[in-house]
Amino acid sequence: MSLNLSASSLRSLLALTEKREKLVAEVQEIESKISAALGGNSSAGITTKSHKTGNGRKAGRPAKSAKRGKRGALKNLILASLKEAGDAGIAVKHLAAKLAVKPQNIHVWLHTTGKKSGLTEALGKGVYRLKTSLGVEADQKALEAPKPKAAKPARKGRSKKTA
Known about the structure:
Blueprint: H1 7-37, H2 73-85, E1 90-91, H3 92-99, H4 103-117, E2 120-124, E3 127-130, H5 140-143
Helix pairs in contact: 3-4
């Protein structure tokens, strides 16, 4: 590809490039001020060039993994909210908003752990209540997390019969 540029067009390109660099520097300065005002929690700024490593990937910070909660924390939150809701029960979407948890996670918990423990009862589509709120007596042990089943012993191979 051949570029036949005159001196005047090169000067105008140079002027535009310098102007662009000044604007980029100004944008980065504004972003740093915003970041400082937010306490450094802002997202990555606008980059003009794609900085790639030798393997073709963009260089940057590794993605942050989500912090996991303690085991059984969701159970305690759900059971406490269901107990508070009483006989009327509570809708999953309201429960999820109250606990700041995805509705899907609430549904999964209710259909697996909640069903196995026998502590919850479905009132309608997406509405649940605690069975103990109905007056059904439940031990405190039932409110505890169910213990995992013991592992089955390894199976021995079949004995070969010789004819």
